[in-house]
Write a structure and sequence with these properties.
The complex is a heterotrimer. By secondary structure, chain A is an alpha+beta fold. Chain B has 2 helices and 4 strands, in the order E-E-E-H-E-H. A 4-stranded antiparallel β-sheet of chain B has the order 3-2-1-4, with helices on both faces. Chain B is globular. Helix content of chain C is 26%, strand content 16%. Chain C contains 5 helices and 6 strands, in the order E-E-H-E-E-H-E-H-E-H-H. The longest helix of chain C is centred in the first third of the chain and has 11 residues. Classes of the chains: A alpha+beta, B alpha+beta, C alpha/beta.
Chain lengths: 548, 101, 170
């Protein structure tokens, strides 16, 4: 894992000092709220419905046990004992006091954590495949490049006042777990005909009000030019992106308005003019970072030692859904579900965080990942330890066997916390989760991704849900629009609205009806998404709106 | 706001972020019961909002919220305001009870 | 509003083509023109050695400055709002691409905390509200001793420092 050296540490320490000074100036009245707001946002501090909310960056979703303990410490000391893991692989705390924020950030800095660029019109915390460095289907470890991007984008002097926020995601695997086509820039590691490693570059994807599956603007970018090419894209965006309308300010609108070809031409011309040797990363830095992401010391001799006694069926169910093939034989990638039936997706208590830190140390070389699906990952677990791990997780309410199933729901905080929301997301997800909690039924339904957003900003990724749910406000009432057929994976697609929305009381029944249509009409072994793509919206419409 | 409903002015305390209400004396309180009611008095409410908004150095996120019903059972009209006043509906253990709600 | 000289904050500009640009004149000798009138007036009106400045907007096409850029002592870039970051790219392009070595001044709506970024993209002076003192500016400038990317100044990004010290810090 990446560890800070004195340079990295110096910067975040100085950042804490800067923020301490800014908070002091705000509390003394020297700074108005209007002046202070962008400064606090640049440190991830929002004002929400009930209090300040702090978003802490977890670069490319990778955490050490130590860092997880620091997150638990913050939950316990500065918040009400819990935190919320987000769809951006970050964590946010809902009950922060402004006057405590500098001390909180000081404590986090000691664990190499911060809130820099988790908000505001800047290059946001970079995300990556949460199975990076562990999955078998990987060309190269995307975290190496994500770390280079983290450094390059940190307090970038030219791109700290962009038209709008800017999100970059990287993957190195065949299966896209990072939703790269739904980002302002998506990067897929590729090998060219000469065997060199580089990136397919995607620009102008995104969710929100205007969802776009981002187009590829360059099939192959040699990896050594990553930074100069990103600068070229960002400079074109910074200069020409719209600033007159917040809803049209994302790069996807610029790409759409110019057309992909014209936009690409602008970027290429800008890139041509950049002094690449000045801007690009140093090869020795890439090597230095790569070394830190070297595989841990896997044990090979015990690979075949699987416990001989018969495993309990509950464990087998969990193993079926919550473990994933590891590149090292004898190991598995474990998904720790933060989706207990009827629970709040992504929430974890300080005690749970501490427990996961301990378990990571015992079973996963002290390494933890946060997935954009709001679960935690233990990336390197020996298969012979799985049953013990599962036993401990289950006792702590962390052993739900539902990864990828219908109750593994993504939900934004919604109107329960968020000042932008129009409707609640969490209780809708809780009710769906309870409705489908029978495990046999979930397995029968198979992979089905339900994603819920409480407003059009789409933090709950509803556009990419097999079943997407968008909460809206209709004359003071919560209403929920359903989209079907979305996908955030390598076959990225935007879900289509099925018809008129449903009330808070109707929405769970509507989801159940959709599932019934699928179960009634599917071919043997046909997953939900394939079924939808084959039959289209009609059978669903008939069932949902027949009575009307 | 010209709907003739009773309003109170809600905000977050600058230092702590906690929910507070404007009192008749111009101070801020965390008790809704002590909040000043603006009865069908729109111009007064708007000028008050402007006044407390200008150079607000103790509170942020200032809004007027409309209340339902007679004072014995009053609650904020909109769900958003209700949640802002009372806490997340999914964490009843963290609720700030709104009297009579 | 008072103009703060940022040029002493540089350890020198990064400028591969730094042969262009007039000597920096003192502000009292500088006459500002509208860019629309610039091309016509520029060569006719000037005495040898006399300096001029120009104010440009965040969206001014910089190619329009190219024909007389070596006569410009000051290019002032206007910020209509502190949130509008286009001026940062304008300065960067003037330094990196045009090799402009004269004074680039930030004027308009700016926050003190932005000064650190202004310097890095190539600004050499800034016009700030009167209540901001030289000491305030200095404090902001000194706040961050490390940078993580090469820009239009000569500060060396961390990865090059790592290379030259031959160690990864600690």
């Amino acid at each position: 894992m990446y560890e800070y050296d004195t340079f990295d540490q110096t910067l975040i320490n100085q950042r804490v000092n800067e923020f301490r000074d800014q908070v002091k100036r705000r509390l003394s009245g020297e700074l108005t709220e209007e002046q202070f707001r962008p400064l606090r946002l640049l440190n991830g501090l929002y004002l929400q419905l009930h209090a300040y909310m702090l978003r802490v960056a977890i670069p490319y979703g990778t955490l050490s046990s130590e860092q997880m303990r620091a997150l638990a410490h913050v939950a316990r000391t500065y918040d009400k004992g819990y935190g919320h893991f987000t769809t951006r692989q970050n964590i946010q705390y809902n009950w922060i006091r402004l006057e405590d924020a500098p001390d909180l950030l000081y404590d986090l800095a000691a664990a190499q954590l911060h809130g820099i660029q988790t908000s505001g019109n800047v290059i946001r915390n970079v995300t990556a495949d949460h199975f990076a460095g562990a999955t078998a289907d990987e060309l190269d470890d995307p975290r190496i490049y994500a770390e280079l991007i983290r450094q390059w984008s940190t307090l970038h002097p030219e791109f700290s006042f962009l038209p709008r926020k800017f999100k970059i995601a990287v993957t190195g695997a065949e299966e896209d777990r990072a939703a790269v086509r739904f980002h302002d820039i998506g990067l897929i590691l590729r090998r060219n005909g000469d065997g060199e490693i580089g990136f397919e570059v995607i620009a102008g994807g995104g969710m929100g009000r205007t969802p776009v599956v981002g187009p590829t603007i360059r099939k192959f970018l040699p990896k050594q030019h990553l930074q100069s090419y990103l600068e070229a894209i960002l400079r074109v965006y910074n200069r020409y992106g719209r600033r007159d309308n917040i809803y049209k300010a994302r790069i996807k609108i610029l790409v759409r308005d110019l057309g992909t070809d014209a936009f690409t031409k602008e970027v290429e011309a800008e890139w041509e003019a950049i002094d690449k040797a000045h801007v690009d990363h140093e090869l020795h830095e890439e090597h230095r970072v790569r070394k830190m992401f070297a595989p841990p010391a896997f044990v090979t001799s015990t690979a075949k030692e699987v416990p001989s006694q018969v495993s309990p069926p509950d464990f087998e169910n969990w193993r079926k859904t919550n473990t994933h093939a590891h590149k090292q034989s004898g190991y598995a990638i474990v998904t720790v579900s933060l989706k207990p039936y009827g629970g709040i997706p992504g929430d974890a208590t300080a005690e749970q965080m501490d427990l996961i830190a301990d378990l990571a140390e015992r079973f996963s070389f002290g390494e933890i990942r946060v997935s954009h699906e709001q679960n935690l990952i233990l990336p390197h677990v020996e298969q012979r330890n799985l049953i013990e791990l599962w036993t401990v997780l289950s006792k702590a309410g962390l052993g739900t066997a539902n990864a990828g199933l219908i109750t593994d729901i993504i939900a934004c905080p919604g109107l329960d916390y968020c000042s932008l929301a129009n409707a609640r997301s969490i209780p809708v997800s809780q009710r769906i989760s309870e409705r489908f909690s029978a495990l046999q039924r979930q397995h029968d339904i198979g992979e089905l991704k339900v994603k819920i957003s409480g407003c059009i900003n789409a933090c709950g990724h509803h556009h990419a849900g097999h079943i997407g749910i968008l909460g809206v406000d209709r004359k003071g009432e919560e209403f929920y629009q359903i989209t079907l057929g979305g996908s955030g994976a390598e076959d990225a697609e935007i879900g289509k609205i099925i018809g008129p929305g449903f009330s808070y009381d109707e929405i769970v029944d509507a989801v159940e009806q959709i599932v019934h249509v699928y179960l009634d009409l599917r071919q043997p072994g046909e997953p939900f998404l394939n079924f939808y793509r084959r039959v289209g919206a009609e059978p669903f419409k008939e069932r949902l709106y027949a009575r009307a | 706001m010209g709907d003739g409903m009773t309003h109170v002015i809600i905000a977050n305390d600058l230092r702590t972020g906690e929910i507070v209400y404007l009192t008749g004396e111009g101070s801020w309180t965390d008790e809704i019961a002590k909040a000043r009611r603006f009865e069908k008095d729109t111009p007064d409410l708007e000028s008050k909002l402007e006044e407390v908004g200008d150079g607000a150095n103790t509170v942020v996120g200032i809004e007027a919220i409309a209340l339902n019903g007679p004072s014995a059972s009053e609650t904020p009209v909109s769900l958003r305001d209700r949640i802002r006043a009372t806490g997340p509906t999914v964490r009843p253990d963290l609720a700030r009870p709104f009297p009579n709600a | 509003m008072p103009v703060h000289d940022l040029s002493s904050q540089h350890t020198g500009l990064y400028s591969p083509k730094a042969q262009n640009g007039a000597q920096v004149g003192s502000p009292t000798e500088t006459r500002f023109l509208d860019i629309e009138d610039l091309a016509a007036e520029i060569n006719a009106a000037l005495q040898p050695g006399q300096a001029i400045g120009v104010t440009i907007g965040p969206d001014t096409d910089l190619d329009r400055l190219a024909p007389f850029i070596d006569r410009l002592a000051v290019i002032a870039i206007e910020f209509s709002a502190f949130k509008d970051g286009r001026g940062f790219s304008q300065a960067r392009i003037l330094r990196d691409r045009f090799g402009y070595a004269g004074d680039i001044r930030a004027v308009g709506e700016l926050l003190l905390d932005q000064v650190q970024f202004l310097i890095r993209v190539g600004f050499s002076s800034v016009d700030l509200p009167p209540h901001i003192s030289e000491a305030d500016v200095q404090a902001v400038v000194e706040r961050f001793t490390v940078v993580f990317q090469a820009a239009a100044d000569s500060r060396r990004p961390v990865q090059r420092l790592r290379q030259s010290t031959g160690e990864a810090g600690v």
